[in-house]
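Same chain as my last thread, 249 residues:
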Amino acid sequence: MQVDSGKGPLAGQVALVTGGARGIGAAVCRALAEDGATVYAADLLSCDETVAGIAEAGGRAYGCRLDVVDRAASVALADDIIASEKRLDILVCNAGICPPGTVAGDWEQWDRVIDVNVNGTQASIAACWPHMSARRYGRIVLVSSMAYYQGGVIVGTEYSASKGAVAAMARHVARNGGPYGILCNAVAPGVIATEMTAGFSKPDPDAIPLRRIGTADDVAGPVRFLCGPHSAYMTGTILNVTGGIVLAA
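reply #2:
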């Protein structure tokens, strides 16, 4: 990546990306910075590598430690960004967990997945909503999964349910955010090679219409589009990023 400081479709804008330490989140941080945004990468893991890469390319980024299920911490982070930057334009809710599971999984895992993937997403939205609605501008992108309409194969019921909830949340926020200039969309990735999926078996690439496993950058591209000016008349949309595994939803 290479950032042309002060230029790009997102120049002057400020973005918060949860789960920004690695994988899809880190790729989204790089993409938004490349388009000129100041990026706050938030994660329980260290975001130093993400931030360093952006800075080396000439961009502006900061790493923040955040447990998305901590509602007070989410509010405090949004407030801190506003205090420092005077604006918060973009929120990408990428933080999530995806443990292997079954239909009759254990309840502890169910509670944890729903807490992080659903409640954590809502906590971030709720923390940013007052600032975006007051300015009458916002771009919110949620990360769902093809598991919500395909049915998880090696993930548990809780993961598919959580990503179905995220898709529903995107549509709800879109309907309610429209009058305030807040657009909310989601991406639904398919089989993506990241650290989170490293321990999962992957399908034969020949079974995928595009004949390859997806990358984090493949997902970051559509997110970048949904955060930028060319998606100004799109809200409540779920974009499939599956290499053709899912052709309609």
